[in-house]
């Protein structure tokens, strides 16, 4: 599978830019952004070309974890690959995210290489 | 006979009274000490009370200042990212220009200049990675703000208990009252990770990788079991 368009979800504009720059650096130029889980769900409904989600965990309104659960419980989007990029690096957090069925997990601060590695791993596994 | 009993009763009561006076003589210095202690402690408590009130009134300002720091950091980080983006465009132009200038005579020189350009690109990329510290510190500051908010609430309730609020109004911190500039950073539970750390070691990512691998293996085993049935 080749990602057509990424949805980058983070409440920090700095982090959205950094993720976007990292995506550009590894050759992915098509992405849209959302500031929280609720906006992400709206963008997802509005843009059917989105086929890869990169989300933060700690966000207002709808958190990244709630977004993942919402997507996984949806008939329409439950197969979408999701990469969580977060500051949460405790074992219980990672396990909780995996239980919610994120495809992979990156702890901030990350490098574009790590991002590429995880995206490639997800794409190879689906 | 009855008169004798009455007299004995009176003497007994007098005995009790005497014992009471003896006890009183012993207890009076203790009571005096307690009174002295109270007169020493009351101004001290008043001081503590005033200090709590002063501190409580300063807390909203501290919260606003923390929000301002977060806001300023985000603006500065955004400006640095703008400069880095512009640098990447310039470097791309330089690379194209160098490619056009390349010929048999200067190919070595062009090659070494290209290497310099690539090094600048790599360094710029490393700066971008380091700028993730802004998000991490923003979460740490939000966590401190949350803590300040809890302390503020405790102090306010303490002041209410002391009845001090009748003299002066107790400032109650309202996160929604932060200035428009800071409004993006108004905090609430779940919007920050109190354990956020700027840690460039691979320790946490290694833990993730091992747990993801374990999870994948388990899933595969479940699939295998399913097909084995």
List the helices and strands and how they pair.
The complex is a heterodimer of chains A (126) and B (229).
Chain A: E1 5-9, H1 13-25, E2 31-34, H2 37-46, E3 50-55, H3 64-72, E4 82-86, H4 91-99, E5 104-107, H5 112-125
Parallel strand pairs in A: 1-2, 1-3, 3-4, 4-5
Helix pairs in contact in A: 1-5, 2-3
Chain B: H1 2-101, H2 107-130, H3 133-162, H4 203-228
Helix pairs in contact in B: 1-2, 1-3
CATH superfamily of chain A: Response regulator
Given the structure, what is the number of helices of chain B?
4
User: Which regions of chain A are unreliable across 5 or more consecutive residues at pLDDT < 50?
Assistant: none
- The CATH architecture term of the largest domain in chain B is Orthogonal Bundle
Number of domains of chain B: 2
Give the overall average pLDDT of chain A: 94
Order of helices and strands of chain A: EHEHEHEHEH
CATH fold name of the largest domain in chain B, please? Helix Hairpins
CATH architecture of chain A: 3-Layer(aba) Sandwich
Largest sheet of chain A: 5 strands, parallel
Structural summary, described in words:
- The complex is a heterodimer of chains A (126) and B (229).
- Helix content of chain A is 44%, strand content 19%.
- In chain B, α1 packs antiparallel against α2 and α1 packs antiparallel against α3.
- Chains A and B meet through α1, α4, β5 and α5 of A and α1, α2, α3 and α4 of B.
Short description:
The complex is a heterodimer of chains A (126) and B (229). Chain A has 126 residues and is an alpha/beta fold. Helices cover 44% and strands 19% of the residues of chain A.
Features:
heterodimer, A: 126 residues, alpha/beta, Rossmann fold, five-stranded parallel beta sheet, 5 strands, 44% helix, 19% strand, globular, B: 229 residues, mainly alpha, Helix Hairpins, 2 domains, 79% helix, elongated
């Amino acid at each position: 599978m080749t990602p057509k368009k990424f949805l980058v979800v983070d409440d920090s504009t700095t982090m959205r830019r950094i993720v976007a720059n990292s995506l550009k650096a590894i050759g992915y130029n098509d992405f849209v952004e959302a500031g929280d889980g609720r906006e992400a769900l709206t963008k997802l409904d509005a843009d059917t070309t989105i086929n890869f989600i990169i989300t933060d965990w700690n966000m207002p309104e709808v958190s990244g974890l709630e977004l993942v659960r919402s997507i996984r419980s949806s008939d329409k989007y439950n197969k979408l690959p999701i990469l969580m990029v977060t500051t949460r690096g405790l074992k219980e957090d990672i396990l909780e995210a995996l239980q919610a069925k994120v495809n992979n997990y990156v702890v901030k601060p990350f490098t574009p290489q790590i991002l590429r590695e995880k995206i490639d791993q997800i794409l190879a596994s689906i | 006979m009855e008169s004798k009993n009455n007299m004995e009763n009176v003497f007994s009561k007098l005995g009790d009274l005497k014992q009471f006076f003896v006890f009183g003589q012993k207890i009076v210095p203790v009571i005096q000490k307690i009174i002295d202690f109270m007169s020493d402690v009351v101004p001290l408590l008043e001081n503590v009370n005033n200090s709590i009130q002063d501190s409580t009134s300063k807390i909203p300002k501290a919260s606003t200042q923390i929000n301002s720091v977060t806001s300023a950091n985000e603006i500065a980080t955004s400006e640095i990212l703008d400069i880095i983006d512009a640098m990447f465009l310039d470097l791309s132009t330089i690379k194209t220009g160098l490619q056009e200038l390349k010929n048999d005579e200067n190919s070595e020189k062009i090659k070494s200049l290209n290497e310099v350009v690539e090094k600048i690109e790599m360094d710029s990329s490393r700066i971008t990675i380091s700028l993730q510290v802004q998000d991490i510190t923003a979460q740490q500051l939000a966590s401190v703000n949350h803590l300040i908010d809890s302390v503020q609430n405790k102090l306010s309730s303490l002041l209410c208990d002391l009845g001090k609020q009748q003299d002066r109004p107790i400032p109650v911190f309202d996160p929604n009252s932060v200035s428009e500039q800071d409004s993006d950073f108004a905090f609430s539970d779940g919007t920050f990770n109190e354990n956020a750390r700027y840690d460039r070691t691979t320790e946490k990512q290694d833990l993730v990788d091992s747990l993801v691998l374990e999870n994948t293996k388990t899933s595969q085993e479940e699939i295998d079991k399913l097909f084995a049935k």
